[in-house]
Amino acid sequence: MKSRTFYYSDPVNDDFAGTDIKTCELPADYRYFPKTAIRRGFAFVFYHIIATPIVTLLQKIVYGEKIIGREKLKGYRKDGFYLYGNHTRVMGDAYSPTLLAWPKKAYIVAGADAFSIKGIRRIVEDLGGIALPYGRKGYRNFMQAMIKHADMGHIIALYPEAHIWPKYTGIRPFRSEAFHYPAETGKPIFTYTVTWHKRKLLPGSCTVVYVDGPFFPDMSLAEKERKQKLRDQAFEAMTERAKNSTYEKHYYIYRQEEKSII
């Protein structure tokens, strides 16, 4: 991929994923958990026996990925936690949680567009995808599913930046609403920050992922304050780690949006 220059006007809402997927609205009663034991068994085999080895190999070959701080997760996998990462890759960001959660399964909150491609919705679900509702209609169902995941001790990954900025080396502003789930359930959070570096021998770039935490919600605070405190802790940790990037492939330039006067 050649170097590119991206112009943005809104660091919170601008998206440069370039997937051009036509998003389909999921039904309000969308089923978040497999109904049959056969489907659950297939998902287990597909994820642990087939997908995880492939993902591990891809992360090494494509990104030469190295993880620093994975030992911090030890002792927390049994009861589950939340992972918050920066969003700089279309596929690689979906793979890092798999390596961090192993030997458990990582469940990844993803936009409805990831479930809108014909023929692969079930694959995305079996790989641990949790579909964000497209609009307010299915939000209640989604929240019930998120609480159930937490109750089952699952490891849940989220991208608070929401949108993909390919190989961006900073941390974009994100809202405290993304931390509603740990603030409500009391589960700890960890951050993982993908940093970019020049390969030493091969052409192109490689990634180093830094893990920080745990950060616990302060249940003595009101929910709004709990969310904000977790958000600030995550943002500070990720911003500090992002400074370790030593290679910038793409350039992002702020351009103020022109507003017409009528």
What is the fold's blueprint, element by element?
Blueprint: E1 5-8, H1 37-63, E2 66-68, E3 81-85, H2 92-101, E4 106-110, H3 121-126, E5 129-131, H4 139-151, E6 155-158, H5 180-185, E7 189-198, E8 205-215, H6 223-242, E9 251-254
Parallel strand pairs: 1-9, 2-8, 3-6, 3-7, 4-5, 4-6
Antiparallel strand pairs: 7-8
Helix pairs in contact: 1-2
Question: Would you kindly provide a written description of the structure presented here, covering whatever features stand out?
Answer:
By secondary structure, the protein is an alpha/beta fold. The protein has a single domain, classed as 3-Layer(aba) Sandwich (Glycerol-3-phosphate (1)-acyltransferase), CATH 3.40.1130. Helices cover 31% and strands 19% of the residues. It is built from 6 helices and 9 strands. The strands form 2 sheets. Strands 2-8-7-3-6-4-5 form a 7-stranded mixed β-sheet, sandwiched between helices. A two-stranded parallel ribbon has the order 1-9. Strand 7 and strand 8 form a beta hairpin. Helix 1 crosses helix 2. The protein is globular. The termini are far apart. The model has no long low-confidence stretch (mean pLDDT 88).
